[in-house]
Design brief:
Length: 384
C-alpha cells in the first residue's frame, strides 16, 4: 500500500505524507482492542517521525509533526492501531507513535489550537440526525441540552469550567470562542445566544474572534451578526449535489446560490466567511464547480472533511471514484490551484483534522499546530 501511495502522490504532485493521511482518514483504523465495532470513533495524536526513518519518501519539512486524528474503526482497514505498542502500522511498518488515545463522543466543551480556541457547543449534536453522512446521531448516549432553558446560565457554567480546567483567571489569551452547532430553532435564538457568549466572555477579558458554524442565518441577519465582531461565519454547506438526499431538511432548504448570497452579504459587512464541506459525496466535477461558485462568498479556505463511514453499508454514499485515493488527490490538485489563485490558503491547520492539506499547500510548507491541547478536556466525565 505504501508504494501505491507514493506513486499516486507523485502523479498528483502531493507530498506522500499528505496522501497517506488522506488515505488514513478515508479508510479509518483497525484497532487491536476487542471492544470496538465498525464505525466507533477514536481520536489520538500521531507523531510520524518514525516514518521518515524507514522511507525517505515520507520525510517532510513540517516542523510540528504531531497530527491529531479522529478516525472511525474499520476492521478491514490496512491501518492497524496497535494499542499494546502504542503505534500506528501499515504494511507491517510502524508509521507513527500514537498518544492520548481516547474514544470520540459527544462533548459540550473542548479545545483546539493547543488550548487557544474554546468550543462551546450548547446543543449536543448527538441529539441531532438527518444528514446521512453524519456520525453524531450515533456518537453518544448523552441527551442533556443545557442551553434549552437558560442559555446565560449555561455560558456562565462553561466559563467556570474552562477557568478551572485551563487554570486561568481570565480569557485574555484566548484567540477564538467557537459555537459549532446547527441545532438552533431560529436565527433569533442563535443571535441571542451568540450575544450572551460575547458579553459573558468579554466580561472575563476575552477580545478574540467568535466563530459560528451552522446554517440558520439568512442575509437579513448579517447586520445583527456584525455587531458581534470580530466574528467568522462558517456555513455548514456539506455538499453541492443531491442536497435533499444527503441533508437534514433545514439545511437542504437553502440552495447553493442562496448560500453564496448569504456569505457575500456577510463579507460585505466585514464578517469573515467560510463553509464546511464533506469530501466524498459529490462527483469531482460537482466538487470543483461548487467550489468555484462559493468563491464569491468566502474570505477563508473551506473546512473540508473527508467522509468517514460510521456504519456498514455507507459505501453507498461515495460518489463515483470516492472509494479510492485518486479522487481526493485530483480534487486536492484542482482545488489547490483555484484557492491559490484567490490567495486563499490553509492558515489554521487546527481547524481541519481530516482535510486535503497536511504539510504543504501549493508548494508552501504549512506551519502551525493541529493539536487540540489539553485534549483530556474531551473526556465528558470531566465536564459534566
Ligand atoms: S445538522 Fe446534520 S451534520 Fe449537523 S449535527 Fe445534525 S445531523 Fe449532523
Amino acid at each position: 500500500m505504501l508504494e501505491r501511495v507514493v506513486n499516486l502522490s507523485r502523479q498528483y504532485e502531493a507530498p506522500p505524507i499528505d496522501a497517506l493521511l488522506i488515505e488514513l482518514n478515508r479508510l479509518g483504523v483497525c484497532i487491536s482492542k476487542p471492544n470496538y465495532k465498525f464505525g466507533d470513533r477514536v481520536m489520538f495524536e500521531l507523531n510520524m517521525n518514525p516514518l521518515s526513518e524507514f522511507d525517505s519518501a515520507f520525510s517532510h519539512e513540517y516542523k510540528e509533526n504531531d497530527f491529531f486524528l479522529t478516525l472511525t474503526i474499520n476492521p478491514d482497514s490496512p491501518f492497524i492501531l496497535n494499542t499494546d505498542s502504542g503505534t500506528l502500522e501499515v504494511d507491517s511498518r510502524i508509521i507513527g507513535k500514537v498518544e492520548e488515545l481516547q474514544d470520540c463522543g459527544g462533548y459540550l466543551l473542548y479545545t483546539r489550537d493547543q488550548g487557544r480556541v474554546l468550543h462551546l457547543d450548547p446543543k449536543l449534536k448527538s441529539n441531532c440526525n438527518g444528514c446521512d453522512f453524519c456520525h453524531f446521531g450515533v456518537a453518544s448516549d448523552l441527551t442533556i441540552d443545557l442551553s434549552l432553558n437558560d442559555p446565560k446560565t449555561y455560558v456562565q457554567w462553561a466559563i467556570s469550567q474552562y477557568k478551572r480546567l485551563l487554570n486561568v483567571d481570565d480569557f485574555s489569551d484566548i484567540e477564538q470562542v467557537a459555537v459549532v452547532t446547527g441545532c438552533f430553532k431560529s436565527a433569533m435564538e442563535l443571535l441571542t445566544y451568540l450575544d450572551i457568549v460575547r458579553q459573558e466572555f468579554s466580561g472575563k477579558g476575552f477580545k478574540g474572534e467568535l466563530f459560528y458554524l451552522g446554517s440558520e442565518l439568512r442575509s437579513e441577519d448579517m447586520s445583527d451578526l456584525c455587531k458581534l465582531a470580530p466574528i467568522t461565519y462558517c456555513h455548514s454547506t456539506e455538499c453541492f449535489a443531491n442536497r435533499e438526499q444527503h441533508l437534514h431538511r433545514k439545511k437542504s432548504s437553502v440552495t447553493i446560490p442562496e448560500i453564496v448570497e448569504i456569505l457575500k452579504r456577510a463579507k460585505e459587512k466585514g464578517i469573515n466567511t467560510t463553509f464546511t464541506y464533506v469530501l466524498g459525496l459529490d462527483p469531482v466535477k460537482d466538487v470543483i464547480g461548487g467550489m468555484k461558485q462559493m468563491l464569491a462568498g468566502i474570505t477563508r479556505v473551506p473546512v473540508t472533511n473527508i467522509f468517514q463511514r460510521h456504519s456498514q453499508g455507507l459505501e453507498k454514499l461515495w460518489a463515483p471514484g470516492a472509494n479510492d485515493l485518486p479522487y481526493y488527490l485530483e480534487i486536492r490538485r484542482q482545488l489547490g490551484e483555484i484557492l491559490g489563485r484567490e490567495d486563499l490558503k490553509p492558515e489554521r491547520p487546527w481547524e481541519d483534522y481530516r482535510g486535503l492539506w497536511y504539510t504543504e499547500f501549493q508548494g508552501s510548507t504549512i506551519i502551525g499546530t493541529r493539536l487540540p491541547g489539553r485534549s483530556k478536556f474531551h473526556y465528558k466525565e470531566q465536564v459534566l
